[in-house]
Amino acid sequence: xxxxxxxxxxxxxxxxxxxxxxxxxxxxxxxxxxxxxxxxxxxxxxxxxxxxxxxxxxxxxxxxxxxxxxxxxxxxxxxxxxxxxxxxxxxxxxxxxxxxxxxxxxxxxxxxxxxxxxxxxxxxxxxxxxxxxxxxxxxxxxxxxxxxxxxxxxxxxxxxxxxxxxxxxxxxxxxxxxxxxxxxxxxxxxxxxxxxxxxxxxxxxxxxxxxxxxxxxxxxxxxxxxxxxxxxxxxxxxxxxxxxxxxxxxxxxxxxxxxxxxxxxxxxxxxxxxxxxxxxxxxxxxxxxxxxxxxxxxxxxxxxxxxxxx
Length: 310
What we know:
It contains six helices and 15 strands. The chain is of the alpha/beta class. Among the domains are: 142 residues, no CATH class; 72 residues. Strands 3, 4, 5, 6, 7, 8 and 9 form a seven-stranded mixed beta sheet that branches. Helix 4 packs antiparallel against helix 5 and helix 5 packs antiparallel against helix 6. 28% of the residues are buried.
C-alpha cells in the first residue's frame, strides 16, 4: 500500500520486497545476457581463428610457383599473428578480435598451428585480407611460407627486378602495385631513394627499415622480410631453422640407408654442417654463413644424379 499522508511516501513491506526482488531479477537477466554475449564473442573468435587455419591449407600445394587467395570476414576483424619459437618446432598462434557494438572484442583463446608459418605485421585489420604462399627450399623443400596483408594496406614495389614484377603481377593482388602508387602506399624500393618505407638490397639479401634491418636468402624469405614485422620474421626464421635441422637429420639417415645398397650421396658431412649451423642460428644476420653450405649441398645432390636424396 502506498500512503501519501503528511507528505510522506510510505511503501508496505510486500511492495518493497517485490521491488527488491524485481531489481535483483533484472540485474541477473542483464548480467546473464552480458556473459552470454561475451561467451559467444569468445567462441566466435576462436572459431574464426580455426577457420583461418583451415582456409590457408589450400595454399600449401607443393607447387613451385606462388599461389594467392583471400579471406573475407562478415565484420571488421583483427588477426593477431603470434610466433613462439619454443619447443621442438615452435608454434604459429592466431588470435582474432572482431568489431562488435562499436568496440573490439577480446578473447583469451589462442589457436595453435605447429606446421604453419605466417608472415605479417603484428596484426592485420580489415574485412578482407589477401594471402599468398611460396615454397621455401633450403636446399630441400622445407615448407610453404604464407604472407598475409590487409586490402587497406597497399605496397608499391619500385624498381623491382623483372622476375619479381612478373611473379607479383601473376598473383593479381590489388594491394600489390608497380605503378599508380598513392601517397598512402608502403614504398618498397629496390634502389636507394629518399621516399622509401623500406629498401630491398636484392643482391646482398637485406631489407632495410628505419627501425632496423633483417636479412634473407632467396625470394621466399625476401617476401617474408617485406610483409612481416621484424620480431615476427626473426621468430619464424628460428622455427624454420628447427625444421631444417630436423629434415637434414632425416636426409642424413637416408644417406646412410641408401649407402648400404652401394649408392653413396657423399653428403653426410655437409648435412651435419647444416644441422649444426641451423641449430646455432641466432638471427637473420647469420643466414649468409648457411647459404654457402646450402649451395654446396644443392650442387652435390644435383651432380650425383644416381644417388639423389631429394
